Amino acid sequence: MKKIIVLGGGYGGVLTAKKLAKKFKKDSNVEITLIDKRPYHTLLTELHEVAACRTDEDAVKVDLKKIFAGKKVDVVLDEITNIDFAEKTLHSETASYTYDYLVIGTGCKPTFFGIPGAEENSFTLWSHEDAVRLKQQFRTMFSEAAKTADKQKRADMLSFVVVGAGFTGVEMVGELAEYRDDLCKEFYLDPAEVKIYSVDMAPKILPILPDSLIAKAEKHMKKLGIEIITGTKIEAVKENAVVLGGRGELVANTIIWTAGVEGSELLENLDLEQKGRKRIVTNDKLQSVDHENVYVIGDNIFFIPEGEERPVPQMVENAEHSAPLVAHNIHATITGGQLKTYKPSFHGAMVCIGSRYGVANVGTPKKMFKFSGFIAMFMKHMINMVYLVQVAGFNKVWNYMLHEFFHVKNRRSFVGGHFSKRSPNFWLVPLRIYVGIMWLLEGWEKLQKIQEDPGRIFLIPPAPTADATTAATQAVDAVNQTVDAHTAASAVSNASDAIKALPVPDFVTSMVKGSMNLMFYTNDGGYTWLAHAFQTGMICAEIIFGFLLIVGLFTAFSSIATVGMGAMIWASGMAPPEMLWYMTAGIALIGGSGSTFGLDYYVLPKLKKAWKKIPFVKRWYIYTD
User: Fold this and answer.
1) pLDDT for 365
2) How far apart are CA 190 and CA 193, in angstroms?
3) CB neighbourhood size of 350 (10 A)
4) How far apart are CA 309 and CA 312, in angstroms?
5) Among 96, 170, 387, 527, which residue is least crowded by beta carbons within 10 Å?
6) Catalytic annotation, pick one of 31, 49, 57, 171
7) Mean pLDDT for back-to-back runs of 10 residues, the chain (625 residues)
8) What is the pLDDT of residue 482?
9) d(CA 234, CA 237)
């Protein structure tokens, strides 16, 4: 039995464990274990949204047991305090774990560069607990300020300093600036009283971005009322002030430190070669240079690719690149395959400044493209969802969309509040029942005609019907054959009414005719068995889906089906103008209209509960919470 331990449930750890599980799926001689001190994976790049109350606290957490449900990975909750590389053993305070291959992905923690008081007197933003603590701090400061008459105390409470103007710092300060308006409205405060500062020792914010994007970011930050202070040494952090070199003290009761990171506490005690703030030195196979059975992933890697001057960056994309390579190399070592060399190709970076604006520099190493505003935010959300597909598939992507687009408060989304406006489903009950009755009657009427004459099952005859010109000619003939002018006029009118239908583009008509000639019509002008089956199915569907809408059962599916039926009738060229009403009403009923005074209220919760227990459903995350 070969034992592989992945230490750390961060971005790199989760992806590596999943890749290993896939490679060794059918190998009973390999045991894979992921160890982390928390039962959930944290989306670290979204913590600022929780801190500023844009998303729920659970939005950035993914249950590790959920991620690895049905997969060949054993999740162990424990905090490792030491690693004995000679004995190939990990130790915690209560247990020991032996391994043949170890993957280290313990991530980072904030670094304070030895600045006096920085660690003791500032908040950090590097864990779920940090984000929740900040969220509570913001609310406490605004609440207390609203009850304070002392102007100086009030000013201190409403002053916020974010130290560090890299990606984490800028995203936090931008999110806070938006949250300020919500809090001021809630606690009856004047937004002009609130002071928000972005402070950094570097000469400019977001230094890895092009100057043009930096300028746009600064412009938007200033528009949000953020004061930017760069190129200033931070000498100390007091309980309620940041001491700036040559500029005195910046007084604030809330100081947030986002100025840099270093390796986790565990790395301090490990006998491994490290460089650059406790990053483990690796070879080009991402093996520790000290132990070839120890691999490193994500932020813990210190490796300078061939032709580069700097080590790989500490960003999520590095974790996404390193995870499959480490999984491949471990698999190759065990099975006797060829190891691969780490040759990452990074595709740029994106940063959001609040919920509605962002900047992005993305592309390939040879050609990068600069975006800002809506496009940048769209790309950031798409990239996040691509990652979440890898972690927990449809389930987490759906939850992400709910938090980011459909359940947002105060229009805090890059698409505003257009998708978040909701009204009670009981308003849709009359519409649902009425649409159901109309479809039921439509199908029932056709069924009655068929019982009278089975040949009438087909609404579209094999031979082309008379066009408008022919119909008009017939009407004129009728005029010539009657002495009653009124009757002639009626004949013309009836001929005109007989051909009224919603217009269909020529290319759609051509496609429909081609497919029907191929599958529905015989050479002698008759109908195939498939035509009989299809038309019978359409009539039955109208009756069935109409009934389901009336009783409110499987309403979403039934509504989508009626829209589809309407589209097919339209494509056939036989749709009356009221078919548009059928289709648009069907679209309006898709979103849970059966959950009020309908059977969906009772049936769907039970079905969802049973569905989640099916092994392949859990394994592929095709369910919603």
Assistant:
1) 84
2) 6
3) 22
4) 10
5) 96
6) 171
7) 97 97 95 98 97 96 95 97 97 97 96 96 97 98 96 97 97 98 96 97 96 98 97 96 94 97 93 94 98 97 93 94 98 97 94 97 93 96 95 95 93 92 88 96 89 66 44 42 42 48 91 87 82 89 97 97 94 90 95 92 95 92 91
8) 38
9) 8
The reply to whether 227 belongs to the active site is no
Torsion of CA 269, 273, 278, 283, to 10 degrees: -130
pLDDT of residue 81: 96
List, in sequence order, every beta strand (DSSP E) within 38-184: 40-42, 61-63, 74-77, 80-84, 89-92, 96-98, 101-104, 108-110, 123-124, 159-163
Nearest to 55 by CA among 359, 414, 412: 412
Q: Determine the residue type at 218.
A: E
Integer angstrom CA distances of residue 425 from 130, 408, 413, 560, 600: 37, 19, 24, 17, 12
The overall longest dimension of the chain from CA atoms, in Å, is 113
What is the DSSP code string of 276-289? TTTEEEB-TTSBBS
Helix ranges restricted to H, 462-554? 468-480, 485-498, 506-519, 529-551
Radius of gyration of the CA atoms of the chain, in A = 33
Question: What gap in Å lies between CA 357 and CA 36, rounded to an integer?
Answer: 35
Report the distance separating Cα 264 and Cα 111, nearest Å.
Answer: 10
* Alpha carbon 203 to chain centroid, angstroms: 34
φ and ψ at residue 411, rounded to 5 degrees: 60, 25
**Which of 610, 459, 473 lies closest to 520 in space, CA to CA?**
459
Strand order in the sheet with 101-104: 74-77, 30-36, 2-7, 101-104, 294-296
On whether the CB atoms of residues 22 and 146 are closer than 8 A, the answer is no
Q: How far apart are CA 413 and CA 404, in angstroms?
A: 7
State the residue for tokens 């001689």.
29
Q: Could you tell me the pTM of the whole model?
A: 0.86
DSSP letter string, 381-414: HHHHHHHHHHHHHHHHHHHHHIIIIIS-STT-ST
